[in-house]
Amino acid sequence: MLELLWLLPALPLAGFLILALTGGSLPKSVVAVVGAGSVGLAFVVAALASYQFLGSGEESIQIALWSWMIAGGFSSGFSFYLDGLTVVMILIISGVGFLIHLYSTGFMIDDPSYSRFFAYMNLFVSAMLVLVLADNLVLLYLGWEGVGLCSYLLIGFWYENPANGYAARKAFVVTRVGDTSMAIGLFLLFSQLGTLNIQDLMHNAQEQWAVGSGIAVAASLLLLGGAVGKSAQLPLQTWLPDAMAGPTPISALIHAATMVTAGVYLIARTHILFELAPGVQALVAWVGLITLLMAGFTALTQHDIKRILAYSTISQIGYMFLGLGVGAWSAAVFHLMTHAFFKALLFLAAGTVILSLHHEHDIFKMGGMRKYLPVAFWSFVIGSAALTALPFTSGYFSKDEILLAALESGGSGAVLWLGGVIGAFFTAIYSFRLVFVVFFGENHHPAKEVTGFNMAAPLIILAVLALVGGFIHIPVDAVFSHGEAAHEEHHVSAVIHGLMVAVPIIGVGVAYMFFFSKTWSAEKLVSSSLGSSLHKFWFSGWEMDRLYQTIFVSPFITLARINKKDIIDLLVGVLVSLTSFFNRMLVRTQTGYLRWYAASFMAGVVILMALGVLL
Amino acid sequence: MQAIPLEHGLILAAMLFALGLIGVLTRRNIVFVLMCLEIMLNACGLAFVAASARWGHADGQIMFLMILTLAAAEVAVGLGLIIQMYRKFQTVDINVLTQMKG
Amino acid sequence: MTVLFYLAASVALISTLAVIIQTNVVHALLYLILSLLAVAVIFYTLGAPFAAMLEAIVYAGAIMVLFLFVIMMLNLGQRSREQEKSWLEKRIWIAPVLMAAALVAQLINVASQQQANVSGVEVGVREVGLALFGPYVLAVEIASVLLLAGLVGAYHLAKK
Known about the structure:
The complex is a heterotrimer of chains A (615), B (102) and C (160).
Chain A: H1 7-22, H2 28-56, E1 60-71, E2 74-83, H3 84-107, H4 114-133, H5 137-155, H6 162-193, H7 198-208, H8 214-230, H9 239-242, H10 248-257, H11 262-269, H12 271-275, H13 278-301, H14 305-325, H15 329-356, H16 374-388, H17 394-408, H18 413-439, H19 453-468, H20 477-480, H21 494-516, H22 522-527, H23 529-539, H24 544-562, H25 567-587, H26 594-614
Antiparallel strand pairs in A: 1-2
Helix pairs in contact in A: 1-2, 1-4, 2-3, 2-4, 3-4, 3-10, 3-15, 3-19, 4-5, 5-6, 6-8, 8-11, 8-13, 10-15, 13-14, 13-18, 13-23, 14-15, 14-17, 14-18, 15-16, 15-17, 15-19, 16-18, 16-19, 17-18, 18-21
Chain B: H1 6-26, H2 30-55, H3 59-89
Helix pairs in contact in B: 1-2, 2-3
Chain C: H1 2-21, H2 25-46, H3 49-74, H4 78-87, H5 94-111, H6 125-132, H7 137-158
């Protein structure tokens, strides 16, 4: 099966080609089979390949498909690199991807652009698989750009509404900033180390660069720039909440489970570079911490169901970055996996709620949905429990590993740990706020749940995974064994442990008090002057949109307005006006007067004779 | 008898040619223009004859004969055109001939 | 001979000058005939009597008379004399005179490089005739065709 690994990205790509080239003329059932089936088959291939790989006991396998470009000293090829980390990623992408595709066959059934949707989704899965399978950074960048493109196409899927187009454009432009940083990082790495093959790169870097040297700092900083763009961390996190304009399944797939984790994957893949620049690694942790706190506060104030989940995603990826920053590589990847499970679950359940309520997004217009939407309710409860890291859910294990690793990393680790715990507290509050407001309380709109087998089954499977996924042991030890503090048991006091367990539960209790039993009034908190200004500040995402608007967008638009006549065009226009000037001059010689023509003959003759005489 | 220097003959031809040229460029009456063209042709013939006289050959005179033939044919056709023009425009002003049509 | 040459040359120049300055068409024509006859004399002094006769008979005799016929036919009248005067302003002479002067200067420059003299040999009718029907017979034939074409053309153009 390993020789057939190329099928893994090829199957969804074939699905995309079939759906794109038939352009919506196929019946919906065929589209569903092609769209979801290709990803399902890809999952089977991934499972078989992973089984074979893990059974073979090797550390890593390289499969070269063909050579892409050879130019001077640089060669890059389509070749795959399979190790424990790759196995985790391909299983998540194809597995969770397949479940989401299956769900979408039901969710998008009434949409006229059914075929286009699945075409884009398949292209996305294909690009993401290329990204994680790539053994060199150029191929990775190809996948990186591919997922960026599909994200743009899918956010702006309902393009008739211009607001969706703007959201898609914003996502693309902001991630582009990160992509440029990453590209410069690639140039730097190639020029210094002469190769972009990831394993060779890390090997050469370890030999040639000293720890903390400027070049290592520069390279890892540039790669970090790319990662924060794709993973929606500070300072490039502004695009993700607006990306919720797209259909809910893509929010689940792209902006929760897979694409936004590409940044985490990149850092994990090139972890040697980050270990060579401890300052940047610490920066990763701090970026993660600040982002998770910022997003957590913002999620408290949102009332659009998907935006709450979006900010929650930003916050959870902040945890992953935190883990990466303190050197807990496998913990971060573990959290990536569990997050894929419960966040996809939450988004798909939110989709069910939205669809059942006829595209209503505001949670304060919902209430008491428990009776009407049972599947969605239980999905939300399980998903929120995992998100909050209640004991023995998958989220509990992964988040705890990260926080403990942070605590044990020494130095400012305690601050990181404390910040993580505070973040967990607020996570509990906002996620159960969502549950209580939507599913409990008074009901204003009786609704019938929209489910079929193809929508309920993924929810159930993901719920199970969200609960028991914590017990899966991911095979990434070999990948990171030379890097991290080995996967040892953490020796911490029972107090710390107890605190980490209790804080989320206390958070649930706080949410209960505010939103279920209404003993404490959220409205009173918000109406106080400090409360209302804080609320407004946090609601707008800490005013980052306005900041970027002032610093970048408005000057650019002003410059563009000044340049409306287009200075460059004017320079070209000089050529045009010069030509027409000479034309007009020459036209005046065509007088029609015979004597004028005769005179010009004679003038020519005189000049030529003069030349003949003089020269 | 003193010999006539060739250059004097050629200079004379040049000056006659130049005078004819001035006439072509300044006059507005088309008949005058034609006459000055004749002057120019005649000057060319003079140059030929003078040159052949230097060598004592007949070739220049034969060329002069050809020029003469040419001038005759040209004058005939040119005068016919002048008559046509006079019929159409009622004037012999050369400046009315500015369009290619008609 | 040489005296005659220079005399005839000056007559030719002066009468040509008069041609281009005249306002009366017929007067200009007569001056032209005078110029042509002077050139015929020049031909004779150069030792080319055949060319001289041709000039006198064909050029001055036939072609100029043709001109005269057409002028008479056009019947321009008094009005045209005044018209001519008005058309002949002082300022339009400047540019052509300058150009022609430049041309003459160049030509004189080139011509002055000749150091030879005209040979006094008279190339009579016999030599010309022998050359015409010897090496240049083709030219004669073509010239006759040209004359035919001119004849036909003139006939058609002058038709009503």
